[in-house]
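Lab manual, section 2.4: Encoding a predicted structure.

Procedure: take the sequence of the chain (452 residues), apply the prediction step described in section 2.3, and record the output as structure tokens. A sample record is shown.
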Amino acid sequence: MADSTEISVLVVDDEAPNVDSLRRIFEREGFNVLTATSGKKALDLCRHHPVNVVVSDLMMPGMNGIELVKALKTVVPDAEVVLMTAFGTVEKAVEAMRAGAYDFVEKPLKRLQMVKTVRKAAERQQLVVENKDLRQQLSQLSDRSIVGSAASLRSALEIATQAAPSSANVLILGESGTGKELLARHIHERSGRKQFVGVNLSALPETIVESELFGHEKGAFTGAVARRGGRIAEAQGGTLFLDEIGELSAAVQVKLLRVLQEGEYQPVGGQTKKADFRLIAATNRDLHAAVEAGEFREDLYYRLNVIALTSPPLRARRDDIPLLTEHFVATYCAKNDKEPLAVDRDALQQLVAYDWPGNVRELQNVIERAVVLNKSGVIKLADLPDPVARAEPQFDAFTFPVGTALSEVERSVIHGTLKHTAGDKQLAAQLLGISARTIYRKLGAEKGDEAD
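Recorded output:
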């Protein structure tokens, strides 16, 4: 039961004697009491003072009790409202409840009944607030959780955890929707650094990227009406995460390279400043190919690529799909105030069979849709989008005749894995438990054999 000293009650009645009588009753119970003689004054008080329960007369001039309930649900949506009237009818009670009132009591008021009703209303209000806080915490945890135990994910997390305490730059590779930012946050949270500053470079117009990163002085260019610090300044002492680093223009690549080489940067129109941040970059592009095509600076690529890891696509970690599904179902049931839902076997089999071109983000969206639209209490095949529901199993397997040379088995497995990872050698190496250098060496030896 809520402590009386933690209960704040607002009494609203246009008749001053009624207000005084209720104030004395509630103060004797130890409640914190506010009073108002009109709906307008009540709303003003609620805007400036915390209120758990509003006890209001139904029939008042100007704004009546039901109108006040509707207005309060906008100003203080968590507050509970108890309405009083000497004209109690079923119709009025129903109308009050529909407007959002907690309860409806008739005059003349009975002291014990009134106190009991207000206590129950306060307990419910506090419970609603606590549940909302828990759902918000769950949502925040869910949005940043790395869920799964597949070998490819464990390999990426192991590299990330080992790299975290260092100051080395990290390059995270991987398709869109695989959770590259989650890996970046995983590194940051174990680094001991201060703030995490993230920038999605693909979402910024090319004309403002330089100013966004390095900042600018007032008057540095048309429209620069005030000084701006920039994201590098924000990240001082912390981690700067540059998502989609492959989208940087050649001019900004040069400036970023100087920051990494010299440890200093220059705001547009300003003086050189010292830079102190840890850089984590991410991209869904093949930067090595971009370097060879002359689209990305080689020297910047090697500065970024001190420690590289790949965020694996969902098709490379199918064993995690049931766990991720359970996680997202729980998350979206909580967010949408729904009872926990089960997932039937057929639906789960299809979720595992589907190839997930949009990766974890696509799975997350599919589960959110299924939870929101579900009416039966169980997520079934019919609740899944057609492409998922009709997916054919996409499992790769290798078979070799007895006596096949180990070198041939090795080559076949490497080629098959590269096909599975769309040519991503870093990810293929993670899946196979070898280094990317080993893959390059073995493929290079194969080309040498062909030359012979």
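Check your result against the sample. The chain has a mean pLDDT of 85.
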